[in-house]
Amino acid sequence: MKAIVKRTAEPGIEVIDMQKPVVGESDFLVRVLAGSLCGSDVHIYEWTAGYEWVPMPVVLGHEFSGEVVEVGSRVSGLAAGDRITALPAMSCGECAFCRMGKAESCRQRGILGLTRNGAFAEYMLIKGTAEVLKIPDNVSSEEASLCEPLAITLNGIDLSGIKPGQTAAVFGPGPIGLLTVQLLKTAGAGTIVVTGTSVDKRRLEIARQMGADVIIDVDQGDPVEQVLQTVGKLDYVFEATGIPQTISQGLQMLKRGGRVMLLGIHAGHASFDPIDLVRQSKSLIGVYGYDRNTWLRVLRLLSTGKININPVITHRLPFSRGVEGFELAVSKTAAKVVFGPEP
Length: 343
Prior knowledge:
The chain is built from 11 helices and 18 strands. The protein is an alpha/beta fold. Strands 3, 5, 6, 9, 10, 17 and 18 form a 7-stranded mixed β-sheet that branches. Helix 4 packs across helix 5. The chain is globular and about 60 Å long. The two termini are 13 Å apart.
């Protein structure tokens, strides 16, 4: 089978042929239907700081949907033919903590596509301890492969406390930023501003399609001045670029009591004016992760048609074209790349 693998501690990935995994009694085998390329996968591809802990070789990919094809004897609740997705982190099911029912303390907890072989392959082996969700019939496999980034953004919306009619800016029209725009629109946000660079032209067009009211090209001038002159001070800023200086910019755009929600992973230190933060009662709030209930809500939103994420998926490629897919993401030509079986 074809698989997209990280094998060396340097920029790049490889597409190789691997043996189909053998199912143990505590595992189940999934035929991957769609594997979505995440920003963290791109960081591993570029080999930026902060991913030195990733063991190699490893099959990348943790955003996925698939069909169960074989189930181990100790796995319950699943059958061949089930279409599923799953939370990437899972306990081992075998250590002392797992046997005591304390899986949250598992010392061998793994993450698909990061510490265990993941979804960028034709077949993937998953531990029976995984938190699995069955995909509704009216949700496509491609849509379901975006449950993980959608859950992150929905968690951000929840933590923000945004109310209908309040204003917000989204920094960065990457997948997380675009999905945030969609959820802000669904939550009833008032004016939605999206910032990006001239390189983001296609992504900014998608942002407008998904509900952005104002587009700011930061290459055309100071983004703080552009926002303040165009829409005035904001209630919220959702930072999804991972660029440290945007934190200070976001704080400067806020009304008194406003909040900057940090969804991006920042590789360097940030600086900002703490006096303004304190005296204006502003907040910086980190957004990371989700729980099973958030994933269930995401699937309901997709199933009921409350959100439409299909415009975010700009490229669909077989696993054999893995390098091409990563390069499309790096160059920002693509918004979201989804890998799948060979045609």
